[in-house]
Write a structure and sequence with these properties.
Length: about 750
Amino acid sequence: MSTSDLRLYRVASLTLVNAMLFQEILSRTKPVATLRQTLESPDLVDKFSGEWKTIEVEVDFVPIFRIARQVLLSLPATPETYEALRRLADSAIKISRNRVALRHDLMGRIFHRLLADSKFYGAFYTKIPSATLLLGLAINGNSWRVDWSDPKSVGQLQISDLACGTGTLLKAAIEALVDRHVEQSAENGTNAHPDEIHRNLVENSLWGFDVLSSAVHLAASAIAMHDPNIAVKTMHIYSLPLGGSQQKLGSIEFAMDSSLNIQDTLIGASTGPEEATTRKKMGIAVPRLDICTMNPPFTRSVNSNLLFGGVAGAERSDLQAQLQRIVKEKGLKANITAGLGSVFVAIADRMLKDNGVMALVLPKAVLSGLSWEPTRTLLEKYHLQFVICSHEPNNWNFSESTELSETLLVLKKGKSSTKRDTVFVNLWRQPRSSVEALAILRELRVKHPADLERTSGTCEIKTDGQKFGEASKVSLEKNKGLSWALPAAFAQTDLCRMAFNLSKGRIFLPGFGTKGSIKTVALSSVATLGPDGRDIYDGFNLTDSRTTYPAFWGYDKGISKLSQAPNQYLAPLTTPPPGRHLRDANLLWGRAGTLMLPKELWLTTNRVASVVLENDALSNVWWPTRWKSEDEEERLAMERRLALWFNSTLGLFSMLMQREETRGAWIKFPKGWYEPLQVLDLVSLSKSQKRELDKLWSRISDKQLLPFPDIHKDQVRAEIDDVFSKILELPSFNQLREMLSREPMISMVPLD
């Protein structure tokens, strides 16, 4: 059995058992046969089909039962089919006994486990506690023209998820809105009406879209099952086409028009079950939104291109071309290199009302990544209210089925004339349940985040003796140009405060305050970076023979000394690699260098943040870097001094505080990231200060540094730090080394 067949059978089985489960729940309040009554029939396919058809026509819930019935009628009439249906029904009966599991989207969780190719689709589904936290912050922290005690008024809000998957975020929105209604009703001394809130939201407010019909089936059922006693007349949950003769792009079509003409959607149309059973074209007109929440597709357009990974290769290329055309023609502020998420955010911006709110799950690279810069520029017209990041080892993500670092963002469209702070929540431990997420929300409502501009203060997010993290705040409007990543760079608030001060050229130490300043310059003003590794592959092959083109290849965790030698040789190509252009080997070699800066680091095993080679070389995973000087002796000396800076604790800290984080301890440094990087102004140092650095190089260049997790007991790094402390007249960096060694991204040990 092929992987694709297995995936199909798994999802089809889940769709059937989900419909059975909902049938059992409906039988408690509606004239619907129970599963045990259904199992008494000699023809299970006919009996289930009849019951589900009756539910469609007389009870509604078309989005749940229509696709399940289509799957059912596609099954062969064999004894194995009937036995499988009985086993699925038995499972549904067992699940139906646990009402708590039903309210917590059990079937959606199972779907996520079954969809083994989630990366193939870019389908990373939000964890339930993460969704509870995100939507709780978005809905409790903002106001619309709504009477929260009035179900009709609440039902006027327009809420959408343009990539709804199994509906986790929409379901969390319902829960947050019901909670706010109940709270306001209690304050007013009036009766709460959660059932009416649920009905009004499902019928009038919620809009969900996805290209996976099986996921949308579960989204509809999860939303309905939140209050199965309420039969709704209609639901705005749609499966949109992807690909086909018209090269449809799912929700990306909203870039062209908020109204779509579609055919044969999962639910059919928003006008009711009668039209839902037809196959004629129907229109969807999505109103302007008050809230847009999304965990958009994660796929990117680099390396093994997975954009639209769910379609065949030839069609995928057509869809990619169509996407590029739409982004260009519609002037979307998005970079496809960052992935589809950037495009979805740009579309959501156009669909959102003024003062509307976005609640997003995005790659953590959105905070500082170069490819996400158009998105950050777009969001400058928003008030960035909350940034939530996880620093829990091996739990950097808020989605299931991924290890990639993610962040939760809450943003409000439009800015007032007053300066507003952004709250950064650095989680030491993610909530394991919705109850814990609600506890964190309560803490954030009553606590005062630590101000990074002040010299002290820590705001612990703590409940029932369990510390979940720390919260801080800073005004991004007041501090123009401050990287969004900086206040979320470390789990410990004092390290974030140190990073904030260092970005201003100040040296801050906890318990001592500001203890001095340093003069820095942009790296691009004093040095140039050589070619990317991809360019090297377009001009050279590795060879076992000695050539005139040495290389420093790979980044072995055993590289522990600042002084290194080339470890490979290159041979110029005569023909271009498949699908690539041949690059001039002479031009590439003209940009070789001796100072090597890492393109990426694995903080749990690596030891050095730069090395200096004996001879010029090129590399695949290092940036060959040359100091700007015509004097060869001066160039080599300055490159060694710069290597010392990068390997000092302060130099390493300056890299980490604005890193591009991919997966926790796995971080990247693109060329465009290095060029504006502020480094110590070595030119301004006196001759005696430079001599101290040169003597330091002679002493330690061949000594071994310890891995970064052992930075607090690394005597070689301490020696480097002591010299920089001396020549810059700064306090000891011992405390900084100690604090860095405890950071989870380095130690891989949770903070307590």
